[in-house]
Write a structure and sequence with these properties.
The protein is of the alpha/beta class. Helix content is 45%, strand content 15%. Strands 3-2-1-4-5-6-7 form a seven-stranded parallel β-sheet, with helices on both faces. Residues 14-189 form the Ketoreductase domain.
Length: 252
């Protein structure tokens, strides 16, 4: 493209940190950034993330970390900073979704879900923010869910955690936007990952697909494409938004 029409989805020279990147949506996001020229730091509590990073190429980095471990998060961010010089883009993707009725939801599972999905996202964002704010540039994309704006049976902790992601996104966007760091969220419907398909298998999945206007679940690359947009120069004026990717399911 010419200088007048730059490739706004070219991430050459950018460093991206993706959490929960060993599988599913996180891996698709890491692959998409790599394909567009970025250096990608992939983190996950699953040691498989090291292999995934190596498959992407020598310029990428895999790091094993539990996002609920404050010291571990800070050490991981410091390691990425040391290896790449800075972090330009953070994608907070790590998450879980154990299910149970609200009246019998185990406290331990509530704590675990809120710890990974919400506290973990906060800890990583807080760790990368100082460098972004000092440089006056950064992109943070937090993975929420359609469950952030509607109730879903059996998802009491998941819904609460993802609604919390939206509140956190709004506050960070308000505070950091004037300093060059945009913060946005992505809220997908069910996605065709191993986790998504196992949770929505059989008749339950058939009913869910029937309620979605396109009659299908989203695909990981479709979510990755939305993340790339929000992290790109094309979205420089987008801040504090929640991009819902559900083909209109939540407006019904």
């Amino acid at each position: 493209m010419s200088e007048a029409n730059p490739d706004l989805l070219d991430f050459s020279g950018r460093t991206v940190l993706v959490t929960g990147a060993a599988t599913g949506i996180g891996r698709a996001i890491a692959e998409a950034f790599s394909a567009r020229g970025a250096r990608v730091a992939l983190t996950d509590r699953d040691p498989k993330v090291i292999e995934v990073a190596s498959v992407l190429g020598a310029k990428h980095l895999g790091h094993v970390v539990d996002v609920t471990d404050e010291a571990g998060v800070e050490a991981a961010v410091a390691a990425v900073d040391k290896a790449f010089g800075r972090i330009d883009i953070l994608v907070n993707n790590a998450g879980i979704g154990p299910l149970a009725p609200a009246e019998s939801y185990p406290t331990a599972e509530w704590d675990r879900t809120l710890g990974i999905n919400l506290k973990g996202a906060f800890l990583v964002a807080r760790a990368v923010a100082p460098g972004m704010l000092e440089r006056g540039f950064g992109r943070v994309v937090n993975m929420a869910s359609q469950a952030s704006v509607i109730g879903i049976e059996g998802h009491v902790a998941y819904c609460a955690s993802k609604a919390g992601i939206i509140g956190m996104t709004n506050c960070m966007a308000l505070e950091w936007g004037p300093r060059g760091v945009t913060v946005n969220a992505v809220s997908p419907t069910v996605v065709e990952t191993e986790l998504g398909l196992s949770g929505w298998a059989g008749e339950k999945g058939d009913r869910a697909r029937a309620a979605i206007p396109t009659r299908r679940f989203a695909r990981p690359w479709e979510i990755a494409a939305a993340v790339l947009y929000l992290a790109s120069d094309a979205a420089a004026m987008v801040n504090g938004s929640n991009l819902v990717i559900d083909v209109g399911y939540t407006i019904a």
